Amino acid sequence: MEVFICSDPLAVGERAAAVVLDALQKPAGEFPVLGVATGSSPLMLYAELGRLASEGEFDPTGVRAFALDEYVGLPKEHPESYWSTLMRTVCDTIGVLPENLHVPNGEAATEAELRARAADYDDRIDATGGIDVQILGIGTNGHLGFNEPGSSLSSRTRVKRLSAQTRTDNQRFFDDRDVPTHCVTQGLGTIRRARKLVLIATGAGKASAVEAAVEGPLTASCPASILQWHEHAVVVADEDAASALKNREYYDLAAAGM
Ligand code: GLP
Q1: How far is the CA of 61 from the centre of ligand 1 (A)?
Q2: Can you tell me which atom of ligand 1 is nearest the CA of 203?
């Protein structure tokens, strides 16, 4: 695992953008596949990718994007649905074409259809050739996507109940209603199939989750610890989010290169 510790969220965005752009380089004729996350953590990264796209450093129009997760029972058009959120942060900001943004379906009419469409989502990812680089945030409880503590390390995209902690954390986004109780989320097994993982963390509220993910045991109790099990995992954190890491000196030396 590579751990980059940056002075502030702006620098986190710049460093993460460099890692992501490198991973999106594809041979001529192949389109890049980007896994996208919601939440506040990747916003500086998206802003930087948008800036680079507007300066002609990369072409976002060929990018295929797959979201990590979606709420169940929240209309797609609600401003806090993850489809709406990613239309703003990924399509409007970066320039990914709306028709190339894929988000799990949280609105199927029946539970059976919801589950079937969740299962199809992994097939849709596989049909593109798989995700080149997956952007990740981290929950204060160590969740990845909406994989709460206790999630199977081999899980695939499926319907799950949200934890009380996550619903409390996310209530700040909803002034008109309670946070939905359920979600559709890529599984930890799905996330692990991406060729590269880039986890972004900012703020002191993430410090203990980042420490558990990077330096704690590989355990379903901290879903983000699956980064330790991935061949190409990168963590980009600001000083506050990195403040509980014990091996700081080593990460800084490694980041400085050979
Ligand atoms: C939500 C999302 C996660 C995200 C997390 C952290 O629960 N499902 O994918 O990582 O929020 O959000 P933030 O970056 O705003 O702290």
Answers
A1: 26
A2: 16
Q: Is 68 in the pocket of ligand 1 (CB under 6 A)?
A: yes
Is the distance from the beta carbon of residue 69 to the nearest atom of ligand 1 less than 6 Å?
yes
Strands 182-185 and 158-161: antiparallel
Q: Please give the distance of CA 199 from its chain centroid, rounded to a whole number.
A: 7
For 149-183, how does the pLDDT look when each residue is reduced to its tens digit (9 = 90+)?
999 999 999 999 999 999 998 999 999 899 999 99
Query: CB-hemisphere CA count at 13 Å for 60?
Result: 25
Helices (H), the chain: 9-23, 43-54, 82-86, 93-94, 111-127, 164-170, 188-192, 207-215, 248-255
Rounded Cα distance between 230 and 249, Å, is 22
Q: What is the value of pTM for the model shown?
A: 0.96
CA distances for 22 relative to 17, 139, 173, 250, angstroms: 8, 26, 32, 24
CA dist 241 to 44, 202, 218, Å? 15, 5, 20
| Catalytic residue ranges | 69, 141, 143, 148
Distance of CA 248 to the CA centre of its chain: 24
